[in-house]
Write a structure and sequence with these properties.
Mean pLDDT of chain A: 92
Structural class of chain B: alpha/beta
Low-confidence stretches of chain B: none
Order of helices and strands of chain B: EEEHEEHEHHHEHEHEEHH
Strand order of the largest sheet of chain B: 6-7-8-3-9-10
Mean pLDDT of chain B: 93
Oligomer: heterodimer
Number of helices of chain B: 9
Radius of gyration of chain B: 18 Å
Number of helices of chain A: 9
Largest sheet of chain B: 6 strands, mixed
Strand content of chain A: under 5%
């Protein structure tokens, strides 16, 4: 078979490109839902980890957050996905929902450390100034610290989201036909792994490259207040 | 206006030992007084000042603000701080907000003024420190002296009853010290109750109603500026003055 015949077999015959497109849809759907969930969980957990009483002692929220991060970081994400699918949400057969939740909860642990770092990197004089004006800790966090922390966390958060997109390649385990799964299926049907696998890799690469460019733009815009 | 009774502050070190920073301070500031605190570094003067609005929690002792015990954990410290402005050595302007938003954030969010009232008040205060043209820039583009004048304005916009200054000119280039001291002098003339930690002896001499000398966590000497500088009593103060004057 010539190269072009192999290409046609992998992508054109039987409108196979539609399967890849649907697979990419599932990949992105899971990644976006999980990403949003991860940011929400991560921010809440970061604030829990940083919470102290007025005289600086850790709170119960602190321990809960630490246990969560430890468990998630200490177990493989494939296992987490399978546990979610076969045990915790065994009654659901909505693979997208289960995968999004599982990856979101997983990502949240990593995002929490990113957000925590971003908050700690803001000069502590900013909090003192807010408190000295009579603003509560929560209000100072919301109006002063978090907006500055966001600038610090955009680059590592982008990195985390990129990792997340690629990590969703394991959702085949819960019978979701994502981009990787589709490529694999086509490869076994045409007895030719080269075209589908390389093709899928190129698609991942292009998506992530586009995302990188977008993140760079966003980062520059957020640095507006740093310009003289 | 504010009275401090037997204040102690200790910091726990990472190796478990304890550093005593304040060892029994008792003092009273009356309304309209301008108290200037001087002393060698490490004498606890900044810690003392930061205890007054509880940015540092005293280990023991009591502080009363207008007869109300603010060291009581049950009181709402935010309400107290709204009436007590503070200016920091490092300015601590909010980097993510423009000068105007820096000034109006607290009064608007705390619902002390409407946004319109706050803007008017801020505009008037900015005019007074000659920085109205900087209202819409971010702090990063300001000089140190400008930052500190804005920081003072930010505190004043809350209509505080007293102001705390923690070495307000120590992080400034020498040529900018004057512009900040001028604003503080003007504030003193307007009758503001002030507690100022500083190394500016000229300011102490000119503005203070009382000068305090702190060393090793205690107030060693307290006097009118004239007596303080001309007739220091303790040997420690004599040594200190001979080094800084």
């Amino acid at each position: 078979m010539t190269l072009s015949e192999r290409f046609i077999a992998a992508f054109i015959t039987g409108d196979r490109w539609k399967q890849y497109l649907a697979g990419l849809g599932i990949t992105l759907e899971v990644a976006i839902f999980a990403g949003i969930l991860g940011i929400i969980i991560g921010t809440v957990v970061a604030l829990m980890k940083l919470s102290t009483t007025e005289d600086g002692k850790p709170t119960i929220l602190n321990y809960i957050a630490t246990v969560y991060v430890d468990i998630i970081r200490g177990t493989p994400s494939v296992l987490q996905l399978l546990i979610m699918w076969f045990i915790i949400m065994a009654s659901s057969n909505n693979g997208i929902l289960v995968a999004s939740l599982s990856f979101g909860i997983n990502s949240g642990a990593y995002v929490s450390e990113i957000v925590r770092g971003g908050i700690l990197a803001v000069d502590k004089g900013q909090m003192e100034a807010g408190r000295s004006l009579g603003l509560s800790k929560a209000a100072t966090m919301r109006y002063i610290i978090l907006p500055q922390a966001i600038k610090n966390v955009i680059p590592p958060l982008g990195n985390e989201f990129i990792t997340l997109i690629k990590e969703t390649a394991i959702v085949g385990y819960v019978s979701l036909a994502d981009l990787t799964r589709v490529a694999n299926q086509v490869a076994s049907r045409t007895y030719d792994a080269f075209m589908p696998l390389i093709g899928a890799a190129v698609v991942y690469f292009v998506i992530i490259k586009l995302l990188t460019i977008l993140l760079g733009k966003l980062e520059r815009r957020m640095r507006k207040s740093d310009k003289r | 206006m504010i009275s401090v009774n037997n204040l102690h502050k200790e910091f726990k070190n990472t190796d478990g030992s304890v550093t005593k920073v304040l060892s029994g301070i008792t003092y009273e500031v009356a309304k309209g007084e301008k108290i200037v605190i001087v002393g060698p570094s490490g004498s606890g003067k900044s810690t003392f000042l930061r205890c007054l609005n509880l940015l540092e929690r005293p280990t023991s002792g009591k502080i009363y603000f207008d007869e109300e015990e603010i060291t009581n954990p049950k009181i709402n410290i935010n309400k107290v701080r709204q009436r007590m402005g503070m200016v920091f050595q490092n300015f601590n302007l909010f980097n993510n907000l423009t000068v105007m938003d820096n000034i109006i954030l607290a009064p608007v969010k705390l619902k002390i003024m409407s946004e319109k009232e706050a803007r008017e008040k801020a505009t008037e205060l900015l005019k007074r420190v000659n920085l109205l043209d900087k209202a819409d820039v971010y702090p990063v583009s300001l000089s140190g002296g400008q930052k500190q004048r804005i920081a003072i304005v930010r505190s004043l916009c809350m209509n505080p009853e007293m102001m705390l200054f923690d070495e307000p000119t120590s992080a400034l280039d020498p040529e900018m010290v004057g512009e900040v001291l001028d604003v503080m002098k003007q504030l003193a003339e307007d009758g503001m109750t002030m507690v100022v930690v500083t190394h500016e002896m000229g300011f102490a001499r000119e503005v203070a109603t009382k000068v305090l000398f702190m060393d090793e966590g205690k107030i060693l000497e307290e006097n009118t500026p004239k007596e303080f500088f001309e007739n220091p009593k303790s040997q420690r103060l004599k040594d200190f003055l001979s080094k800084v004057l």
